[in-house]
Structures are given as structure tokens and as C-alpha cells.
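FAQ

Q: What does a record look like?
A: Structure on top, sequence underneath. For example:
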């Protein structure tokens, strides 16, 4: 199997690799901050965050319980090296000096400039039903079109939902992904800020996607947004999550959370285009519960960041529930690690899961698939298929496949297949002879490699993914 996948040590974390220089957002620059809370992770720090956010007492108590859990829980064994992160060094909460806005014109110029570079105003106007944008630790703008209002869809910031819909939030918050799941889930619940709350009423189908976009604006900063999506019976929604950051001299840490509750016969598509700059250590917690005949589809495009750990998961709790998970991980450059995968937990009979992983490693990068398929006793006639394809673009790069199957039901059908391919010098030579640069050639080959999974994705997802991959290999940076 070779060397184990590991997270980078302190010295490596604080280096900046050269091909981040063209990042679309440019280099990090100073900007006005209204509040910045940093220091040793403690009860006083948690109390201060809750006070600044003017939260109800039940949320303050939840944060303190999470802090206690974080202090008790061990470092997960499958995250070797995370202990090298000095959490006391990062800012746990940062609020930019900008009022929450309902239109782009109301934002300060420096924020408008950043969002314009990312193309958010255009996307919101053209193809989205709703959009919320988080800068550092706070939502700065949330826009909802009349389609959502007319159908009584709730689409607001997570912080606003805590105050406006406390009973609804209490019913679901932390129930899909419990804080005791692992140490960094507990850390998230202790420090969470920003994110989106979505409730789709029974029978409502939203024609166009909604999006949440997250930007980390400075070094040595933690971002801990929380997204909670509840799709009631017979409903449909496509949620897009985008991420970006400027080039940072030192690392920042992202520890986000997504909880999805898909009720009977509902359908949820959740797409993430994660294209952080190379200074970000990215840890994502994503899980869904699917009730009877519900369907949850995850698409995870992990292109940027220094290190990414993310495993979107679905608990198939209801009879006939199904899930599909497509992950695309690009580890482009020395010290770059993409450890991505999926989990499918079959609890009920006649459940279905399909997991497809496409990993690409280049310029000394490490790409790994890490997944779990678990079929509990009584989940009769369940079917799961896992397909892992790895593409290695040079001799310095590596790829790993680390599957795990736990099948307790004799009637279940669980299959797994994996392939590894390597880019040959003759292919690059042929493309070079046609006037195509090496970066353009690699982007073409990578987009061809993932073409079969792109075929079934929404047009807007395909467009963003292919553009981001082109930027990554042309060394022009990222748009998120």
C-alpha cells in the first residue's frame, strides 16, 4: 500500500506553494473587522462568541456541552497528524465590518469587489433561486427570489434561524450529525457560526438551485459554518455549496458541517465545489438521513486547498431509500492531499447506494479514496456498488483506495471495483506537438477522465467544475 496518508506537519502547513500566485481573489489583504475572537479554546471564549452573536441561552449551553465533548474525545485515528494544528493560534470567530445586506449595492466596496470576482451577482441573477454568502464567520447577504417566497420555502442564515425558528432548529440541529461522532464534530458545534437553514415544505419542488458561498478572508482563521437542510415529503431541492479564499501567507482552518434530512419520497441534490486556495486545511462533516423512498445525491468537487478530508454520508433509514455519491478529488502539487470518499449505511430493506470516486494526483500530490458501506441485519435485498478510478499524472504523485465493507445481511449485494491509470509522456508529447501547453493538456485529460460522471450532472455544476479544473492546471488560480 505504500506510505500512509498523513496530514501535513507544522512547517509544511506554513509554506506557500508557488502555483497559488494566480488565485482569482489575489493575495490576502487587510480589511476592516468589527470583531475578532482568538486565543485558547476555553469556556470563556465560547461564552464570548455566544454573547457577541446574541444567541438564546439554549444555544450557549449546546456550545458548552460541545466544548466538554471536544476536550474528552480523542483525535480520530483516521486523521493522522491533525494534532499538529494549533487551535489556540487561530481566530475562532471573525466578523467583518459590514452590515448584513439584501442587495449587492449595500455592501462595502471591498466586499463587492471580492464577490464580483467570484461571479456571484451574475450567478444569483441568472440561474439561482436563492443565495447566501458568508465572509469569515458571518452571512453578509441573503437573496431569495419570489419563487421561494411564494412556495413558503424558508431560506435564511443559520444564525437567523436559531432566533426566528427555534423549535424547528431544535428538532433537527445536531440530530443528523451528532457532536459526539468525533472530536472535530464537537469542535464545530462549539464554534459554529454562519451557514444556511433551508426548509422545503411538503410537495414543493424548487426548479432552480439555491447556493451558499463561503469565503475565508485572512490567515490563521477558523471558519465553522453550519448548513441544515430539511426536505419535507414529496419535495425536491438542489443545493450548491461554493468555497474560496485568497492566497494566504499562513494556513487557515475550515471545519464546516452539513446536515440533510430527506423525508418520505423527497429528493435532495447537494453539490459542493470546493476550490480553496492552497493555504487552507479543509475538514468537512456531511451527513444525510433518507426516509422511505427518499433519494439523496451528493456531488463533491474537491479541487483546491492544501489538505481536504471529507466523506459525505447517507443513512438509508427508510424502506426503498437511495443515495448516489460522486466525488472528484484533485491533488495538484507537492504537499497537497485529498482524502475524500463516502459512507452509505443501509438500515432498511430494499435500499440502494451508488458511490463513484474519481481522484487525480499531479505534481507530487496524494489522492485517496476512503469509504464505508455498511449493511445492517434486516436491510434485506439492499444493493450497493462502489467504483473508484484514480489517474496519476506523473511519477511523483500517488493514489490510494481504502474501502471498507461491513455486511451483516446475507441477502445484500455489495460490489466494489477500482482502476488506476497513469498519464504517459507520449500523450503529452502528442498534445504539445499540436500547440497545447502542458497545463492545458492535463486539464483536457482530467476533464476527459471525469466525463462519464459529468454526463448526469446539472449543466451549472458541469460548467463550474470544468472551469475550475482548467484554472487549477493552467496555474491561474481558482474562482471557488
Amino acid at each position: 500500500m505504500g506510505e500512509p496518508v498523513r496530514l501535513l506537519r507544522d512547517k509544511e502547513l506554513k509554506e506557500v506553494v508557488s502555483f497559488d500566485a494566480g488565485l482569482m481573489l489575489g493575495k490576502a489583504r487587510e480589511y476592516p473587522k468589527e470583531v475578532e475572537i482568538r486565543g485558547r479554546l476555553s469556556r470563556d471564549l465560547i461564552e464570548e462568541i455566544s454573547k457577541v452573536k446574541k444567541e438564546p441561552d439554549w444555544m450557549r449551553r449546546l456550545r458548552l456541552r460541545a466544548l466538554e465533548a471536544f476536550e474528552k474525545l480523542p483525535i480520530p485515528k483516521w486523521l493522522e497528524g491533525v494534532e499538529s494544528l494549533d487551535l489556540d493560534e487561530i481566530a475562532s470567530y471573525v466578523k467583518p465590518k459590514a452590515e448584513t445586506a439584501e442587495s449587492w449595492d449595500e455592501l462595502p466596496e471591498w466586499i463587492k469587489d471580492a464577490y464580483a470576482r467570484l461571479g456571484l451577482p451574475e450567478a444569483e441573477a441568472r440561474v439561482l433561486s436563492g443565495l447566501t454568502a458568508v465572509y469569515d464567520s458571518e452571512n453578509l447577504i441573503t437573496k431569495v427570489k419570489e419563487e421561494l417566497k411564494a412556495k413558503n420555502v424558508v431560506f435564511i442564515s443559520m444564525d437567523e434561524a436559531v432566533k426566528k425558528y427555534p423549535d424547528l432548529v431544535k428538532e433537527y440541529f445536531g440530530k443528523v450529525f451528532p457532536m459526539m461522532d468525533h472530536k472535530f464534530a464537537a469542535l464545530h458545534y462549539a464554534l459554529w457560526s454562519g451557514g444556511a437553514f433551508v426548509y422545503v415544505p411538503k410537495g414543493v419542488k424548487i426548479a432552480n438551485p439555491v447556493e451558499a458561498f463561503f469565503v475565508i478572508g485572512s490567515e490563521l482563521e477558523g471558519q465553522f459554518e453550519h448548513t441544515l437542510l430539511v426536505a419535507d415529503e414529496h419535495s425536491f431541492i438542489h443545493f450548491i455549496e461554493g468555497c474560496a479564499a485568497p492566497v494566504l501567507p499562513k494556513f487557515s482552518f475550515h471545519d464546516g458541517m452539513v446536515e440533510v434530512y430527506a423525508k418520505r419520497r423527497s429528493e435532495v441534490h447537494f453539490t459542493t465545489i470546493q476550490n480553496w486556495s492552497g493555504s487552507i486545511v479543509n475538514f468537512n462533516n456531511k451527513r444525510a438521513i433518507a426516509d422511505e423512498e427518499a433519494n439523496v445525491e451528493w456531488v463533491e468537487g474537491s479541487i483546491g486547498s492544501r489538505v481536504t478530508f471529507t466523506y459525505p454520508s447517507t443513512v438509508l433509514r427508510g424502506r426503498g431509500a437511495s443515495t448516489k455519491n460522486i466525488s472528484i478529488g484533485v491533488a495538484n502539487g507537492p504537499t497537497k492531499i485529498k482524502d475524500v470518499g463516502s459512507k452509505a449505511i443501509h438500515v432498511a430493506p430494499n435500499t440502494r447506494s451508488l458511490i463513484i470516486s474519481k481522484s487525480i494526483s499531479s505534481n507530487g500530490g496524494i489522492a485517496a479514496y476512503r469509504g464505508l458501506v455498511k449493511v445492517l441485519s434486516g436491510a434485506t435485498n439492499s444493493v450497493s456498488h462502489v467504483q473508484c478510478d484514480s489517474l496519476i499524472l506523473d511519477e511523483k504523485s500517488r493514489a490510494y483506495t481504502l474501502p471498507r465493507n461491513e455486511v451483516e445481511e446475507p441477502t445484500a449485494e455489495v460490489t466494489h471495483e477500482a482502476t488506476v491509470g497513469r498519464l504517459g509522456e507520449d500523450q503529452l508529447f502528442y498534445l504539445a506537438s499540436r500547440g497545447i501547453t502542458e497545463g492545458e493538456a492535463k486539464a483536457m485529460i482530467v476533464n476527459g477522465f471525469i466525463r462519464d460522471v459529468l454526463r448526469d450532472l446539472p449543466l451549472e455544476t458541469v460548467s463550474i467544475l470544468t472551469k475550475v479544473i482548467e484554472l487549477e492546471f493552467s496555474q491561474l488560480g481558482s474562482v471557488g
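Q: Is there anything notable about this one?
A: DSSP finds 13 helices and 24 strands in the chain.
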